[in-house]
Amino acid sequence: MIPIDDSPIVRDGKTLILAMDHGLEHGPVDFEDVPEKLDPSTVFETATHDAVTAMAVQKGIAEGYYPSYEDDVNLLLKVNGTSNLWMGEYDSAVNCSVDYAAEIGADAIGFTLYGGSNHEVEMAEEFRDVQEDAREHDLPVVMWSYPRGQGLKNDTKPEVISYATRLGLELGADIAKVKYPGSSDAMEHACKAAGDMKVVMSGGSKTSDYEFLSTVEAAVNAGATGLAVGRNVWQRENPTQILDALEKVIYDEETADAALEATE
Amino acid sequence: MIPIDDSPIVRDGKTLILAMDHGLEHGPVDFEDVPEKLDPSTVFETATHDAVTAMAVQKGIAEGYYPSYEDDVNLLLKVNGTSNLWMGEYDSAVNCSVDYAAEIGADAIGFTLYGGSNHEVEMAEEFRDVQEDAREHDLPVVMWSYPRGQGLKNDTKPEVISYATRLGLELGADIAKVKYPGSSDAMEHACKAAGDMKVVMSGGSKTSDYEFLSTVEAAVNAGATGLAVGRNVWQRENPTQILDALEKVIYDEETADAALEATE
Amino acid sequence: MIPIDDSPIVRDGKTLILAMDHGLEHGPVDFEDVPEKLDPSTVFETATHDAVTAMAVQKGIAEGYYPSYEDDVNLLLKVNGTSNLWMGEYDSAVNCSVDYAAEIGADAIGFTLYGGSNHEVEMAEEFRDVQEDAREHDLPVVMWSYPRGQGLKNDTKPEVISYATRLGLELGADIAKVKYPGSSDAMEHACKAAGDMKVVMSGGSKTSDYEFLSTVEAAVNAGATGLAVGRNVWQRENPTQILDALEKVIYDEETADAALEATE
Amino acid sequence: MIPIDDSPIVRDGKTLILAMDHGLEHGPVDFEDVPEKLDPSTVFETATHDAVTAMAVQKGIAEGYYPSYEDDVNLLLKVNGTSNLWMGEYDSAVNCSVDYAAEIGADAIGFTLYGGSNHEVEMAEEFRDVQEDAREHDLPVVMWSYPRGQGLKNDTKPEVISYATRLGLELGADIAKVKYPGSSDAMEHACKAAGDMKVVMSGGSKTSDYEFLSTVEAAVNAGATGLAVGRNVWQRENPTQILDALEKVIYDEETADAALEATE
Amino acid sequence: MIPIDDSPIVRDGKTLILAMDHGLEHGPVDFEDVPEKLDPSTVFETATHDAVTAMAVQKGIAEGYYPSYEDDVNLLLKVNGTSNLWMGEYDSAVNCSVDYAAEIGADAIGFTLYGGSNHEVEMAEEFRDVQEDAREHDLPVVMWSYPRGQGLKNDTKPEVISYATRLGLELGADIAKVKYPGSSDAMEHACKAAGDMKVVMSGGSKTSDYEFLSTVEAAVNAGATGLAVGRNVWQRENPTQILDALEKVIYDEETADAALEATE
């Protein structure tokens, strides 16, 4: 953890990451109801919204589309990831070097760590290299901290999520992205376990506007510094509207109710 | 994905790759009916046809034969591959470094990725290195994107082929080579899943002229930017004739019927 | 082993390491009764005590907190470690390079070796690199020498602890941190097995003041050059008081009784 | 494959390699009847025969004995090999770097590839490095192409030997050394499968003069460019005599009968 | 093998290596009857005897003690080794780089190879690097050539020991250290299998003066160039006396009887 409040991916101490690596991690199935979103440009357009401090994509999409958006979008290059065709123990291939990410214009680096996987040791060592390379380029590092694998059944239990944020702090991340542990108290504990490191909530699969916004509200109140979200934005009919609402909840710390009312 | 329309392996936005790595991947059995084709010169001769934008071979054949054809043929060096004596889970040895491929005169790099194999993570990391080395040399990268391995029975199902093209896009290929998913609609979806990245259909085992050309026609109509073909050209008695027909289907977007008629 | 008596982590030939890597190794569970200690600053404050010659933390905590304490605390960067979510055979990821540790300002390097683990050979080779890199930076190396793994049931048997200190000596550590082998005689043998290399006792889980101090007294009398302690200091209500007492036992070689009396 | 007709290991387009790596691959058992041949000097003396274009040995023997023979013998450094104490799946350790081989004075490099072994992929990647390093030093590469391992029972079947030569061509060898496939026709097919790459027959275990020479004659007539032989030369009482005969069969393309008659 | 007769570890063509890596390989158990020998200085003192041409230790002991003895003792740095807490197939961690060994002042390098182990291939490749690095520093290499592992029950059978010395020769060692194969004839064969490379007998566990010396006498008569010995020297009450006797047997080629008589 180094000071990143002056980094482009932070706005007023908060962060809203729009993620679009689902084509790799989940495959075309995530686009079934929104086939037009197979075109990454559509999501980059959405990412030009002021609320979005960074767009998270894999190398190939960054190479192909970021040149058209580099003035309007901050790039968070997610440097590892694996298809769900993979049948082995949880693991994630490092698909992009930090040097190349920097060359493409990345403003930050993203990395998934599966704590508890039989590949945890190997992934932690890959994280070491990625984190230290990122330091060379003065790039913040966001850890997708997702404990899972042999022996970990329910990966959103409070103690697991607090362990997840702590792993981010101990190993040198600047922001940890974790799943919501189910309650405001548990989220608060997870944020405390992170010390001064920032924690963002993972958006998860698509839910109703209210349910989604009130979870974000609870997370922010519990100390989260924002959100990393994909499907709950770009699978919606009107991504701009939900981003307007998220902007109010995250940056203005308004309630979900107030934010919804103001943006409907 | 980077812009490759000005690359030598693209002609009018289209691509026709003549592949001849069967001696490695399949062994002498593919030459049983055409033993004279064991001599790679014969196929290089065929590759001088205007319709062919690149010839795909392994390092050894490039070293030995390309010097005689470098004025007339563009070289796509396939940098990985494995014999079918291999009994293990799907994998592919990296047989050539990109630096050496460039030294030999390669105009593009080819790489097989078996998504879903127990070696997927390792292969994706090898692809990372190959792709980034290719960027250093300004060489386009063609991914043979072939999901297969434990848990993947039918590897030409539409959702598998769309995942295959998407893997190419996400991981940074410039062209993905995939099997025909069985219908024009499925091919169209696979091309959409690739965003702006080019998709070429894999030629597969030898079929009749009409069957072959009409599949190519369907693929091109569905958005494919061309074909990568081996046996359906060089196992034929008259490779020039089928290339004449392919030229019409791919570059002039004529029907299979018209192309056949014009070239018979 | 090289001469380290002039190193900042040694005071009058003795060493007291305050360790706080429990957030990684044990997880939030170790903070259940002292949630305020989730904030690493609180332990760094404790480490400013004169008795403490070094504070042992992982990379992320060093990066985030050491800049505020570098004038008052010596940094021992623990370069490997693994979460207890890990279900595999005992192993430890190398989370920090020695070069980066030096850049952060480390005064010494810490490394865990699980002798007897099925990863022993691999860990010993990682230790080689770490130790030789540390020599380049003139940094002392502390080995957490913890035999455990397949076939090792009771890892505090006298012969195991003597083997543990000897491994430190043979492989090139400057200090070995080992568990107390249960008796003063066994500790004396373990110190003899270390030759001229320093041995520090591991603090272990929290016990009563008297029990803890008298074990330290026994260890020091047996030849140990000090202590590496975490929970027995920072899980206490008054860490300063126990450090006052430890200072007397370790540096002044007073009895536990005398030290307790003087500090209560 | 690059042009090697001007290389010292080729004479009039032909090659006769005298191999003596049996001490590593087979152990002292191969010397039971000829214990004096345990002294490598004896075989180097034999290698000074004009018929021999290269002597193939491992690093240690090259280091120790080649300095005395460098004016009279061409050195083929066999850079991998494994003892038959090895009980694992077919594999071969890379015992010498190409740089060091060149420093010792090697005129060519030898490498074993076990196609079909569960180590095929790994060996092919080691071959890549060796082959490309050899190119840096302008050294020809001879592949001992020996398909064997799980699933390959009879490794001299015609289709296996043709696959073996083809592997050499595709992967970038300059000469492939293969076992005789049992018939002249099969050998001819194997040579055709190699394209313009040279093929040498493997000498195998000791047989009668006539049987041995007539197999060589058949191989040469079928297109082989020579022989790599060990036991059939140095296990003989009079190695010079058999080399005289081989010279006639290989370079003068005489029959086995004529060669035997002329040299007896 | 390179000429090493002028190396400091050779005296009149003979070698007597005093080894003290038992603290790593066997653990404190080897010191049970001689606890004072846990202090490596005691053995370094012994190594100042004129008969000793080199002292073999691991990195840590070399670092810590050799500076006091560098004028009187030649250092053989044993760069690999593993504790007997290790329960896996025979293997040995490379604990010291050759560069660092040279920096510490090593006069020679020692390396264990377990031929026949499932780690043989990996160890042979580690040996390659060590041997070639040693050549850069002009340091002789001693191979502890110990066939053992899956399928090798009795590792002192004559054919195994002859294979062991041959492995040393083929792979590029300058001296092979092997167990005594049980008879003078077998030892003679093992020395012949080594060609011009030197062979030293391994001392083994402690035996009577006469038994020990007469085995050494037999080995020297059979062609061995000396001895590598640990316990049979430093576990004795009077190491100097046995070294006096060994000096006569090894360098003066006296009988065990004569040597014993002269030194008692």
UniProtKB/TrEMBL annotation, chains A, B, C, D, E:
The keyword Lyase applies. One of its GO terms (molecular function) is fructose-bisphosphate aldolase activity. SUPFAM superfamilies: Aldolase. The active site is at 146 (proton donor), 177 (schiff-base intermediate with dihydroxyacetone-p). The keyword Ribonucleoprotein does not apply. Keywords: Lyase. Its EC number is 4.1.2.13. Belongs to the DeoC/FbaB aldolase family. This is fructose-bisphosphate aldolase. It comes from Natrialba magadii (strain ATCC 43099 / DSM 3394 / CCM 3739 / CIP 104546 / IAM 13178 / JCM 8861 / NBRC 102185 / NCIMB 2190 / MS3) (Natronobacterium magadii). The gene is fba.
